[in-house]
Amino acid sequence: MNTIKYLKPSQGVYRLTNRLKRELYKRKILVINTPSEIKAIKKAKFLIPSLDFDSEYLNRFDIEGILNNEFDFINISHKVSLDSAWNDKSLQHLWRYNLHYFEYLYKLGFQYLNGDKNPKYYEKYKELIINWIVNNPCPYGDGWHPYTISLRITNWITTYELFIDEINNDIDFRDQIAKSLYTQYSYLQKNLEKDVLGNHYFENIKALIIGSIFFGKEQVKSKFTKELLKQLEEQILEDGMHFELTPMYHKIILEDLIKITVRLKNESVYAKLSEYIKKMIDVMYSFEEGFGKTPAFNDSTDGISKNYDCLLETCKQEFDLTPKYIDSFKDSGYYILRNDQYKLILDCGEICPSYLPAHGHCDALSYELSMDGIPILVNSGTYQYEGGEWRNHFRKTKAHNTVMIGNREQSQFWGSFRVANRISDVIRRRFNYKGLSFISGAYKTYFGAKHTRYIGEIDENVLLVLDKVEAKASEEVRSYVHLNPNVKVSLSETVKIKKDSMNINIIHVSAKDVSISKGWYSSAFNLKEENEHIVFTKSDDLDFFGYLICLKDIKCNAEISNDVLTIRTDKEFIINLNKLGEKI
Q1: Tens of pLDDT along 224-282?
Q2: Lower CB count within 10 Å: N or C terminus of the chain?
Q3: Whose CA is closest to 312, among 51, 134, 114, 584?
Q4: How far apart (Å, rounded) are the C-alpha atoms in residues 460 and 457?
Q5: Which residues, 6+ apart, have CB-to-CB distance to 172 below 8 Å?
Q6: CA distance 584 to 228
Q7: pTM (predicted TM-score)
Q8: Angle at which helices 270-288 and 247-263 cross, to 10°
Q9: Which residues contact 55 (CB under 8 A, 6 or more apart)?
Q10: Residue 520: in which H helix or E strand, if any?
Q11: Cis? peptide before 146, omega within 30° of 0
């Protein structure tokens, strides 16, 4: 009930009607009427080479593996029998979804065009599609989930042009793929994911616009172009960030928008779509330039979305758009501190859109820090979507560079994609105090405790992370700092972090205990490795505690006395904590 109360009433209605309709399709009470002859635009251009043939993207797929039905998705490899693999419950659910997406067709198409049009690549292309058609009758299995339909028909349509001469000379196959595409396209129109909304519904819209162009359906294109504008207004915040607040899905939605906008260049809507693309690439560039990875806030990891270089290059080529750096994203709650040697991103946002909790983590006021483009202090990542121990572990508060109060999470997450009661009263601000640059945020946990965090640049080599917690005296408060597995860490009077020639010291501020523990870090789906994290335990008699991050091996220290924080490096800095608190 605490999950449902945040949903839009329409989501419940669509959840019930979508399930009912699927049963009616199974019972043949509802049917998709596919014409005996399908009209498609024979020479339409859907491929975007800078995007679809990006080398890093294509390298995800092994051509010999594909030819032998051995597929590597989300870092899991399986050699399969296609007849049974599409809905084989022994395979991880997301892996099966990737099999249904058909993104590997781009690798076949690329090899075909760059390998003297060797017929074995076309034959494999044809075999894979026919096998799917034969073994996935409407509306059974994962293949008829609206999300997999949305990705698959886009990929079938885009790669169709790569083999178009062979397809036009292969009449039986041309009829098979055209009829299947039209059936999937028609089914999707009647089974939109309005129960989920967000990125899933956006994928539906993208697929229907591309499908309507392919089939020459102007009314459908017009209808869903209008719906696209409504969703952009809702899903893209004023600061340009996608409203699910995950950098990975931000890039996925950006790619979708690029694909749509390229097809609508001659339409009146083009200028509006370009404005959204510009705002979105500003966000992506600001986050990732010189950072070394996709920032791991909420469900974000590398190896899923296209990389940001590829997306930026495509926007330059197709729309003549270049990004600008921005350091404050007030609507989404992300803030950046940086200089020539470091870059820090702080999350001061909500856990998720109120009605769409699927990809939220307990990472309020967490941050990540890179030095010289190398990630050093990292959130733990996103290991998998399968429900259970590991999904839960990586969503937990203590899996992020933030504060845990007692043994309770910031928000109540459950299942694979659910959040019940969640953080509230979220505020954030960027300000200067005595010439020092600060970013800060605050929120209340679902159980009423309050956490406020200040991160300030004391000088070019020293950062301050300072936390104030208002909670029951009986609840122990701990602050976690997770380390990239590739760094070395030791604890003496200070915490010393070493990476090659890089030396960083972390010095506690009024913590009663500092320890180093083992944990887990995931750089990509289904990859995890042991790492270490620092745990600072708050003193019982002070409201504030935290630590200094000394970016070089220099002497610095700090102490709190009578609501005054004194920091000593080669200079002395005096911070009145009451005055600091008035800033937020």
Answers
A1: 999 999 999 999 999 999 999 999 999 999 999 999 999 999 999 999 999 999 999 99
A2: N
A3: 51
A4: 7
A5: none
A6: 37
A7: 0.96
A8: 150
A9: none
A10: strand 511-524
A11: no
